[in-house]
Amino acid sequence: MKQKGKLPHKVTYIAYIASSIDGRISKSSQSNVGWTSKEDWNFFQKSLVKMDAVIVGRNTYKITADRLRRRNTIVLTSKINRAKIKDKVIFFNPEKSNLKKFLSSKGYKKVAILGGPKVYNFCLANKMLDELFVTIEPYIFTNGIPMFSSNTFKKYKFSLQSIKKLNKKGTILLHYKYGN
Amino acid sequence: MKQKGKLPHKVTYIAYIASSIDGRISKSSQSNVGWTSKEDWNFFQKSLVKMDAVIVGRNTYKITADRLRRRNTIVLTSKINRAKIKDKVIFFNPEKSNLKKFLSSKGYKKVAILGGPKVYNFCLANKMLDELFVTIEPYIFTNGIPMFSSNTFKKYKFSLQSIKKLNKKGTILLHYKYGN
């Protein structure tokens, strides 16, 4: 029997989030990173090596473009109608085209989700968040950008896989899987 | 030499916070607790026994009054000018009277801070937050009330004292101290 096409391709989506104790990921959507520990940065860089592509929002892309240069990068944006490709970067409007289909068609197996809050929420709401690595740095910000941003409250269940203390001052890394 | 009065009395302030992974403590300021694990509840109840008094905001008081009945309770509110006492509960406006002085004068040694976000922030901003117990339940809410609420971004440093896994599904308890 002739093979009619590729089998549907399973993509694993892994979100990486660095947060304060009080769940803030930055001061503002324009502000650069820079407040996280070098231990988190090392973990994050090591993890990215294993990824086939990364998904970011427009603001996150702006402040991290330099560092993502050599990676397959999908920038989610509502500002365009049709996907726009620029070297290894594709600007993609997930309301106009099917993002999951696109990622699968590219043959990606592991895709990292790097934020910001709307992108984390979009992926979670669309079953594109299988695993979650949350680094909690030992600060409280009392204001700033929250991890996830949505208009409605929902209760998504996760199960804790591991806890790791990354340094002496008390940066911790939590690994969760989606579901029970 | 005659003693002129009591020595200034050191009060230790300990905040208890139950949060989702994404730093939300409830759906809305009117909504009751009820989503946290029984293991967290047990830890919390055991801890309260050692406390001389608790501080809560007006909303938190409304939804927890039943359970705080037998405790010395300070309800922070901006709606009154002079402190109002009702059995073991005192309604107190910290902008009109000196809260630290009041607590010290009562002889309290350990005071628990139970939220909500404005009360946590008030205490943190006024050096009334020496220790912090954060329970992280394995959920993501994507919306709701944040742990701390302030109009300005600040970076308060904490140091991690311990991590404890409270149950199988992955509720964790983090203990921090204020400062380095």
UniProtKB/TrEMBL annotation, chains A, B:
Domain of life (superkingdom): Bacteria
Lineage, opening ranks: Bacteria, Candidatus Nomuraibacteriota
Classification via Pfam families: RibD_C
MF terms in GO: 5-amino-6-(5-phosphoribosylamino)uracil reductase activity
Domain Bacterial bifunctional deaminase-reductase C-terminal: 14-168
Protein name (record): Bacterial bifunctional deaminase-reductase C-terminal domain-containing protein
Annotated InterPro entries: DHFR-like_dom_sf, RibDG_C, Riboflavin_Biosynth_HTPR
GO BP, sorted A to Z: riboflavin biosynthetic process
